[in-house]
Write a structure and sequence with these properties.
This protein has eleven helices and 15 strands. The chain has helices at residues 2-22, 69-89, 135-138, 143-152, 175-178, 198-208, 249-261, 271-274, 297-302, 305-312, 323-329, and strands spanning 41-45, 93-97, 115-119, 125-129, 159-162, 179-182, 187-191, 211-215, 232-234, 238-241, 265-268, 282-285, 291-296, 316-320, 338-339.
Length: 341
């Protein structure tokens, strides 16, 4: 009996040793990865005070000035309403928050910059809060209201990971604008920019168990691209990415190699297509277990027939008409949805 027990223990120890050697990449961090890439539930914030944001224009080349403030606001509200209806008709659940009433937040329609929701493989739901560069964007956060509204839909938050303290030291990380996530494998792709610092990125990686793949990306004028989700989107089986915006050959290779390692079909887009918001798309699930690729009509019109054909192999293309929000706000459809898991 004792010999049998000793042999069993020896065999177990040998098995653990071999497993550690065979899978050296497995670690405690990897246990925190999320079971799914996409969700069928999003949170959106009504553009009640939408307008040109002078505090962010210096780092966002996609913004444009406006003339008639009230007309722009009304048009933005109409676009928002039509977009939410189209998402709901497609089978995506939409949770809507109002903008704050006590302060003017012209960019509140882009909530994915201040929060993200993660459901780990052990079932724990984590709400992450992010440090944002502009003071009037920091004011967008409505943490208690967000928690209350998503709880009503069955998404109770178990833990809050607050990264906003980095604002004091001038280190910013604007949520899933700054990062494009492969949730299943725990990989965060991130363009380094004034709005996405390596310090805050590494803190996110450490606390959430994500591997960071950082790089630099420039627009056609040679300026830093302010958010990663302008030039890149990662779906369950594919990735839309503007490789020509990554000027450094080694960094470009690093991104390509990582996407291949993750098993993604790479769909390249051009620098010109970035300006038509082709990178600012997101794959979502629907209530009937199908998949849609949310994008603006601007992006849909700019994708080539060949690109649309490839994308359609993975999901149904779902364009929404938001020209005023895009032109004035400098963001597009992906920026307008915060995923809830």
């Amino acid at each position: 009996m004792r010999k049998t027990t000793a042999r069993s223990i020896a065999f177990l120890l040998l098995f653990l040793l071999v497993s550690a050697i065979a899978y050296p990449g497995e670690s405690c961090a990897n246990k925190q990865v999320e079971p799914v890439q996409n969700t069928d539930t999003v949170l959106m914030v009504s553009p009640d005070y939408f307008g040109f944001n002078a505090e962010t224009a210096g780092s966002n080349a996609f913004q444009n000035q406006m003339d008639d403030v009230e007309k722009v606001r009304q048009q933005a509200l109409q676009e928002f309403g039509e977009m939410t209806k189209k998402l709901q008709d497609a089978g995506v659940r939409v949770i809507i928050l109002p903008s704050r009433k006590d302060v003017v937040t012209p960019d509140a329609v882009f909530p994915n910059n201040w929060f993200s929701v993660h459901k780990k493989s052990d079932g724990e739901r984590v709400l992450v809060l992010y440090p944002m560069m502009a003071p009037n964007r920091q004011a967008e956060r409505q943490v208690d209201l967000l928690k209350a509204e998503i709880k009503k839909q069955g998404f109770a938050v178990d833990k809050v990971t607050d990264l906003t303290g980095h604002e004091k030291s001038g280190h910013f990380l604007e949520g899933t604008g700054s990062m494009v996530l492969d949730r299943v494998h725990g990989v965060a792709f991130a363009v380094l920019s004034p709005r996405s610092s390596l310090e805050a990125l590494e803190d996110f990686g450490k606390q959430m168990g994500y591997q960071i793949v950082s790089f630099h990306s420039q627009d056609k004028n040679g300026s830093d691209i302010y958010h990663t989700n302008v030039m890149m989107s990662v779906g369950g089986e594919f990735a839309v990415v503007c490789l020509e915006s990554i000027k450094d050959e080694a960094e470009r290779k690093k991104v390509v190699d990582e996407l291949h390692r993750l098993g993604k079909k790479i769909i390249p887009i051009t620098l010109d297509q970035i300006y038509h918001m082709c990178g600012n798309v997101i794959e979502l699930n629907t209530a009937n277990d199908s998949k849609v690729l949310l994008m603006s009509q601007t992006a849909y019109d700019a994708f080539t027939p060949e690109q649309k054909a490839v994308l359609s192999e993975y999901c149904t293309l779902l364009p929404v008409t938001i020209p005023i929000i895009e032109k004035i706000g400098g963001g597009s459809a992906r920026c307008m949805v915060g995923e809830v898991f």
